[in-house]
Amino acid sequence: MLPSTTVRFTEVYGVGRTPLAGSGQWRQAANLAALIKAGDDPPAVICEACHQHDVQAFLSLRMNDCHHTDDDTGPLASDLWMAHPEYRLQRTERDYYSSAWDYSLPQVRQQRLAIICEAAEKYDTDGIELDFLRSPYLFNRDEAEDNQDILTDLLRQAAKEYTMYCVGHAHAPQMITISSKSPRNIVKE
User: Fold this and answer.
1) Tens digit of pLDDT per residue, the chain (189 long)?
2) What is the C-alpha to C-alpha distance for residues 125 and 44, in angstroms, rounded to an integer?
3) CA gap 11, 65 in Å, rounded
4) Taking the model in full, what pTM does it have?
5) What is the CATH number of domain 24-181?
6) Which residue pairs from 162-167 have beta carbons closer than 8 angstroms and sit at least 24 positions apart in sequence?
7) d(CA 80, CA 94)
8) I want to staple 50 with a disulfide (CB 3.0 to 4.6 A). Which of 55, 110, 148, 160 is the partner?
9) pLDDT value of residue 153
10) Which pLDDT score is estimated for 61?
11) What integer pLDDT is reported at residue 129 of this predicted model?
């Protein structure tokens, strides 16, 4: 189990921010906040329902999601992302992927690993999907090839930690599935 002094990384996006009228992201954030305020924990509810129907329950974590690029104080922008622009890719042009996490930085990898560990400790799942497909740029262009080992090490550590934290869950399988969704290849620009 995580020590009680461990900082929790779960945050309810959008809390404490001024919503934009008509934004679907804000409606999603408000709906999620209402469920939590009512005492529901959506991932826990889904995992429990899956197991009641003999269906495996997997969590999915987008390892880099840039949907908040157009509203960088919106409900999809995490507090850490807003507080630390230096943790983002340093692209010469400002584009969609300029808001992506820079995985060459240990702070970014540690934050993502902490979310993975927290999910494993908190939810009774059969596995987790680490989704690298949505926003596949993880390193600055000139560093990507040299940093491949960093990502491999992160995946190994995530598998080890996730499996360790899942031990003891009611539905903990003998083998936890760690899945990675990634593009087949990325063409060098």
Assistant:
1) 333 333 344 555 556 666 555 567 777 777 878 888 898 888 899 999 999 999 988 888 888 888 766 667 777 778 888 889 899 988 767 777 888 899 999 999 999 999 888 888 888 888 888 888 878 889 988 888 899 899 889 989 988 888 887 776 665 655 556 677 666 665 554
2) 9
3) 16
4) 0.79
5) 3.20.20.70
6) 162/116, 162/117, 162/119, 162/120, 162/128, 163/120, 164/120, 165/1, 165/2, 165/117, 165/120, 165/121, 166/120, 166/125
7) 20
8) 55
9) 93
10) 87
11) 86
Say how far apart CA 14 and CA 78 lie, in whole Å. Answer: 9
SS (H, E, C) the chain: CCCCCCCCCCCCCCCCCCCCCCCHHHHHHHHHHHHHHCCCCHHHHHHHHHHHCCCCCEEEEECCCCCCCCCCCCCCCCHHHHHCHHHECCCCCCCHHHHCECCCCHHHHHHHHHHHHHHHHHCCCCEEEEECCCCCCCCCHHHCHHHHHHHHHHHHHHHHHHHHHHCCCCCCCCCCEEEEECCCCCCCC
Dihedral angle sign, alpha carbons of residues 124, 129, 134, 140: positive
Structural domain boundaries in the chain = 24-181
Structure-token pair, residue 189:
């620009």
